[in-house]
Specification:
This protein is α/β, with parallel strands linked by helices. The radius of gyration is 16 Å and the shape is globular. The protein is built from nine helices and five strands. 58% of the residues lie in helices and 12% in strands. The longest helix has 15 residues. It has a five-stranded parallel beta sheet, sandwiched between helices. It has one domain: 3-Layer(aba) Sandwich (Rossmann fold). The structure holds BIS(adenosine)-5'-pentaphosphate (AP5).
Length: 185
Amino acid sequence: MARRILLLGPPGAGKGTQAALIANALHVPHISTGDMLRAAVAEGSDLGSQVESVMAAGDLVSDSLVVAIVDERLAKEDARCGYLLDGFPRTLGQAEALNDLVIDAIGTVVVLDVASEVVVQRLLKRAEEEGRSDDNEETIRRRLEVYEADTSPLVNFYGAAVLTVDGVGAVDDVLSRIMIALAKS
Ligand code: AP5
């Protein structure tokens, strides 16, 4: 089974939820650029102060900043034999940079398919429960627009490496679909 996996999908598709479970099952590190950037904001680091307003608006952080943090993370020992990338790459520029960083960077690309109205409802529910700063309706719509414009072209870019999985249903059912698709790949 592939051990270099990219997880793509719109905001709220369940990337973070599924990535943690898949990474645990396959014993590879779960590398989430969103989590790393939120940690930088919470720490109040220089990186955090550069990205905070961009994230709050639902826009993308610059490719150069994100590629630098992924480069540093992939250089760590635990990523040598595999990884699960969640939320990276998000642009064609990032995808090309990843190919420059790692030989055979991509094993399989899992795309979680969830309709826009479903993800909006999920994220508005999370807003009530957790209060993430980019989970208000205006910013959610912006994140969806950015996904369509900048990230969805990666599905064609990765072509035959892509497995599209229905991301609607119970978390365990979605996980089973992903694991079955990965096992067949
Ligand atoms: P990031 O953290 O990557 O956010 P996102 O893509 O908007 O994704 P979310 O975390 O909202 O959703 P998810 O698909 O991970 O779903 P989750 O499992 O959390 O990025 C945030 C920001 O950081 C970006 O907008 C950008 O500014 C910046 N950034 C990050 N990476 C970048 C990059 N590479 N380049 C540039 N900028 C970057 O689930 C969502 C909710 O749904 C949860 O409440 C969950 O419990 C629930 N849920 C999950 N699965 C199900 C299910 N099956 N049924 C019902 N509810 C479910």
